[in-house]
Amino acid sequence: MLLTTAPDTLPTATATRILNMLLPHHRTTDHDHASAEAFPRQLRRISDFVREGTPIVFTLPGFPCKSPNPAKTLGHLPDMGERLSLTFLDTLCTRIERIHPPGARVVICSDGHVFADLIHVPDHHIDAYADELRALIRESDLTHLSVLDLRDILGDLPHDMKRAHVHDRHAPALDALRAEVRTDAPTLALYRGITRFLVEDTAGFTGTRSALQRECRRRAYGVIQRSRAWRALIADRHPGAVRLSIHPQPIGAAKFGIRLLDAPDVWTTPWHSAALREPGGGWTLMPRARAERLGRLVHRDGRPSHFER
User: Fold this and answer.
1) What is the pTM of this model?
2) 3-state SS assignment for residue 172
3) Alpha-carbon span 268 to 257, nearest angstrom
């Protein structure tokens, strides 16, 4: 008797192959190497798209704005770090299309406006950053990518009203979040990572170092609250999407942490760093101050772009 593959196993097999494409880029602090089977949530969601014969939708909250710290970045607009990261994401979708012909797309959920007041970045800088992301995607013909921000959801309302709307309707209670930070290791790591970024990015603070740290710890809770509120809004718009994250995620978590480019620190992102091109052609992200010591500044289209050794 001729044995055939059961129809329902085919989507799972294809989903496993797709997840295996993502695993080399997993952003995590775990040291163990996991197989695709260790990510049941992602396998289930990818399998659903495969079974339905539709493009796989990935949502990626991130690409908010450049850090305001001039020792870390080249300015407030996207540069080579973002260009390379967007190209990486589009290429990943192209590879997926080879084994899942309907393809895949990544919705970049630019979240700068969600917590601009907490990270002390002007809203017009965030508008310019997101608009430039869209221009890069269009000019580079990255057809698998799109950008979503608060302007797409809440229109022309004043930014403060948009933030209040998001926070009031979707943010978790502060007491509950504090309790989670005390008891959940990944949430504690996230809280500490955000606090560190806020300390590094704060300019012109006139108080003591300990006072700055207290202030940044307070703001870190607000950033997490708003980030989760933004995540809830995204889930409403894309309920079946595969959720990616630019923060490190444990093996098997609901979100899949994805590393966009090589960096010595698992928390480093293109918007907190500058790109350095190595002699062999590879790229590394690092603070601008360090990249300046290692290479020469390269301009592109009249703007600082990256460094080269």
Assistant:
1) 0.91
2) coil
3) 12
Given pLDDT bands bounded at 50, 70 and 90, which one contains residue 202? confident
pLDDT in tens, 31-85: 778 899 999 999 999 999 999 999 999 999 999 999 999 999 999 999 999 999 9
Alpha helices in the chain (DSSP H): 9-22, 40-52, 80-99, 116-119, 123-139, 150-154, 159-170, 174-183, 185-201, 209-237, 288-294
**Contact predicate 11/50, CB 8 Å:** yes
Q: Do residues 226 and 9 make contact, with C-beta atoms less than 8 angstroms apart? A: no
* Pairwise CA distance, residues 126 & 135, whole Å: 14
pLDDT tens digits, one per residue of 256-301: 999 998 887 888 899 999 999 999 999 999 999 999 999 999 999 9
Cα separation of 164 and 276, whole Å?
38
Sign of CA dihedral 290, 296, 301, 304: positive
Average pLDDT over residues 190-208: 88
Q: What secondary structure letter does DSSP report for 26?
A: B
The Cα–Cα gap between 162 and 170 comes to 12
